Amino acid sequence: MKLFALVLLLVAPATALLPDLLEKLWPEQNEGVFDGVARIPYLDLLNDNSYIDPFLLQSMKKYGYFYVVDVPEYSASLEQDIMKQFYDLDEDVKDEIAIRRHNPANKNAYRGYCPGLDDVENTLQYKNLYNIGPHETRAASFESDDILEKLRYDCQEPNVWPETGNCTFDKVFKETFQAGFEIRRNVGRAFIRSIARAMEYPNLPALFSEDEFSAMGLRKYPIRRKINSNMYSDFDGTLLRELEHIDSTVTVLSTFNNDGLEVLYKNQYRAVPVTGENSFIVNIGKLVDDLIDNKVPSVRHRVAEVDFDRYSITYFLGPQFDADISRSVSGKLTDAGQKYTIFGEWIKDYLGAIELFYY
Length: 359
Description:
There is one protein chain. By secondary structure, the protein is an alpha+beta fold. It has one domain (40-358): Jelly Rolls (Sandwich). It is built from ten helices and twelve strands. It has helices at residues 2-11, 18-25, 42-46, 53-63, 76-87, 91-95, 147-154, 167-199, 286-291, 343-353; strands at 39-41, 66-69, 112-114, 128-132, 215-221, 240-245, 250-254, 261-265, 268-271, 280-284, 301-304, 310-317. Strands 1-2-10-7-12-5-4-3 form an eight-stranded mixed beta sheet. A four-stranded antiparallel beta sheet has the order 6-11-8-9, with no helix packed on it. Helix 5 (76-87) crosses helix 8 (167-199). InterPro entries: IPNS-like_FE2OG_OXY, IPNS-like_sf, Iron_ascorbate_oxido_reductase, Oxoglu/Fe-dep_dioxygenase_dom. Pfam families: 2OG-FeII_Oxy (PF03171). Belongs to the iron/ascorbate-dependent oxidoreductase family. Residues 219-319 form the Fe2OG dioxygenase domain.
């Protein structure tokens, strides 16, 4: 913390602001494992206040994540309440906006509602998902033998919104999550700008100038009624709700004060403090880590089993479709670059592998 304070003295416009800034970035110090995780005010991040850059970078390097706090005109409890109302709808209502794997009458393969897997008691990945993207409309269909051109078109799937017969609910649902999507996209892009400044990678933001395949997933993990061997961690035997994994791109996460999230820190999984009423958790995945020369860790994380229906929202910001991911910003060959040149090629195989796009 003394190092952080020294940096603040160097970058703050007036040293008289030091106590206020320390209280803003670290409001509580209880000698907890993650007390040093930076809490970056949303407006300071969004407005490119450079004083945040060293704290954000230090937090990412040491812990693998940071918090975005004090988000104006945002309410996590409102989002969670509306999510619960959505998931309480009759299945036939939700099925009307289900992706084509579950409702062949629908054209969308990704944007829309995805019910939990059939083996609800045994699979570790049992969850319900409603996926939202950046597009509300799409151009007329076209014929092409070029698989990347087809994918470029498919990436622009328009959102589908619930039509319940309750006009008030439908309007509130759509407006709330359109606004939530925009807030999270702002966070993801501002994070990239901050990292670019802190690491002196001025060309990094250009890779994210478009976000054809950014995605926001409204997730519900229902209570499990049975336990089986697939639900235990190979790492330490803990009973899990969500597999241990590393993300791929930039992640902006809302946990809605729900316990369960754990990150691997110093070779031990530790509980992440909840995000609070108007805040987010931000981390990066392997693909983005490679683009910045593996100087910031893509943290491994999981969700431990809990005894309640668990809700969360994950937003993923990836590079633009034509972004060159074969080389890092300093010119080094990336892991992805051994097989792919542009992000569009990578996303095609990635989504096929996780069965979210091509079925």
